[in-house]
Design brief:
Layout lengths: L1 E2 L7 H11 L2 E5 L2 E4 L3 H10 L5 E6 L2 E6 L2 E7 L2 E4 L3 H6 L5 E2 L8 E3 L6 H11 L18
Antiparallel strand pairs: 1-3, 2-3, 4-5, 5-6, 6-7, 7-9, 8-9
Length: about 140
């Protein structure tokens, strides 16, 4: 994060650049938060020894799926998961954070968690995650 207090003369030019180019995902309370770095996602996917996890980019962040069901996201270089009962039970001390303004609270996963514990967490959460809803087919208007 780059705080406004830490940056001198080019602060406002940097803010304008980030907003105009869409490079930053948020500007709140004097702090510019840049989008998640692809290397963070790559590292996360490489340490989890399974092909059941997939990702999808969304506005500079990444949605995470386990066996096709949305379980969390990588937002501002942090791993956040849905606060379903199994996750809250396994991580009772995990803080609830909002990935962006207006979003629902999610559990912040400590990055020091061993991959085996994360996989066990995902397995326990799976039945509580909502199934993927089929997308609506587009209809064409014929005049």
């Amino acid at each position: 994060m780059i705080t406004l207090d830490a940056v001198c003369g080019f602060t406002f030019a940097l803010i304008d650049f980030c907003i105009l180019t869409g490079y930053c995902s948020k500007k709140t309370q004097g702090v510019i938060v840049l989008a998640t770095e692809k290397t963070v996602l790559t590292r996360l996917l490489s340490i989890l020894p399974t092909d059941d996890i997939s990702s999808r980019p969304m506005m500079g962040e990444y949605l995470l799926y386990y066996r096709g069901r949305l379980f969390g996201m990588v937002c501002d270089n942090r791993l956040l998961i849905k606060p379903v009962a199994a996750a809250v039970e396994r991580m009772p001390n995990a803080p609830l954070v909002r990935p962006y303004e207006g979003a629902k609270d999610m559990l912040l996963v400590d990055e020091t968690q061993p991959p085996t514990l994360l996989l066990a967490l995902l397995e326990s959460m799976y039945d509580q995650l909502p199934e993927k809803t089929p997308s609506k087919k587009k209809t064409t208007n014929r005049y």
